[in-house]
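Hey L., structure's done. Input below.
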Amino acid sequence: MYVRNARNREEVWLLDHIEAMALDAAAFRSRDYVIAIDESGNEKVGFGRIRIHRADERVCELTGIGVLEGWRGQGVGAHVIERLVDRASDEGFATVYSLTDQPRYLDRFGFDRIDREELPAKIETRLDEKRDGSVPDAVPLALATDEFSMPEALRERFKHASPVGEGDGEPEETPEDFGIDSENATYKYDTG
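Output:
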């Protein structure tokens, strides 16, 4: 399992999953996203975005974090967030903001609730947009990029992540299920 930058050709995949999860796609640009990949099947399992606002001052917003259902609870979202915070830091941001109705999830990484009055103007506008739209209970959070912390349990889960329910499907059929003696059969059809 690893997290990498999204590629242009993954726009459709991203937009499909953003829509399915009812996430914010405002000012969509695939290059703002990272994608979590399961190495065993090269399957995309999660994603997230940093949105850089260039108004009076440059500010960075963490948004659009999504993990496919069978992969939740295994540290995928945590590693997406870690990669995004690293990118924000690399681009010179000391603080990352997030507007979410799930503040307890981000609390574990060091995000703190902040008062509306402390928000940069553009993030305050985004808070109003979210509250008027799809996230009426949005809460503003902030994180100093150098204070991000990953709980060790999430690191361990990520190392061993696999889709929930894998192996729970139909049992594999064997030759014996069809009355074939696999120890003595030498041909597909009995000829004689």
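The longest strand covers residues 43-54. Residues 2-163 form a domain with the Aminopeptidase fold (CATH 3.40.630.30).

-- N.
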